[in-house]
Design a protein that fits this description.
7 strands, 216 residues, alpha+beta, globular, 40% helix, 2 domains
Length: 216
């Protein structure tokens, strides 16, 4: 092959390197800048008037750790349900997908296992990305339509949890949401529960931090 042919091949190869993987290069750079750590932040707020605690748990992990973080969240909430169970409660789920005007209200029944299974299927559901799901634990004698307005309730409202938690039939509640980015996923979990459960929830959050920080 003459020098001209070699030069053309070299230029063509260089062009492929420069143009084709541009988005890949950008992703690699973003991943390098972010690092591979699992970031966990917690905010805790006491409502003295209602004797409740609000925990805001944000978990930021690389995309390849999404399933690991999701399992830890589910495990945490199932353990919380087991700890707070009095044997006379039912679990419920409420959400509203983008573009919809009315919420979906789904009674889950009395089984913690059903609660956990629905969590697994919901936390990564594509149609619920950047949407808020409300999970309730309430007195079994009250139907979900008695606790949540089936027409006007908006889970995205900043006061959604407060509007529900004031009902004495509601034992505790959880708000979950998630947002995927190019190299990571942010999973937010808000738990509102009676103040006496402070030690239980604090211990569960510490467990999540330790398990996500452990080498894999």
């Amino acid at each position: 092959m003459n020098n001209g042919g070699c030069l053309r091949l070299g230029l063509a190869a260089l062009s492929l390197v420069v143009t084709l993987p541009l988005t890949t290069i950008q992703t690699i750079v973003r991943r390098w800048r972010r690092g591979s750590d699992c970031l966990v932040t917690v905010k805790r707020r006491l409502d003295r008037e209602n004797d409740t605690l609000r925990f805001e748990l944000d978990i930021d992990v690389p995309l390849d750790q999404e399933l690991v973080a999701r399992r830890e969240i589910v495990d945490c909430l199932v353990r919380l349900a087991e700890s707070l169970s009095a044997g006379d409660e039912h679990y419920h789920l409420a959400f509203r997908e983008a573009g919809e005007s009315e919420p979906h209200l789904i009674p889950l029944g009395p089984l913690i296992q059903t609660f956990g299974e629905r969590l697994i299927h919901t936390l990564g559901r594509a149609s619920l990305e950047r949407r808020t799901c409300l999970w309730l634990c309430a007195d079994r004698r009250r139907a979900i339509v008695d606790l949540i307005d089936p027409i006007n309730f908006d889970p995205e409202s900043s006061e959604a949890d407060e509007a529900v938690m004031v009902d004495p039939a509601v034992n505790w509640l959880v708000l979950t949401s998630f947002a995927r980015r190019s190299v990571n996923i942010l999973q937010r979990t808000v738990v509102v529960l009676p103040a006496p459960a402070d030690a239980t929830m604090t211990a569960l959050i510490t467990r999540i931090k330790n398990r996500l920080a452990a080498p894999r």
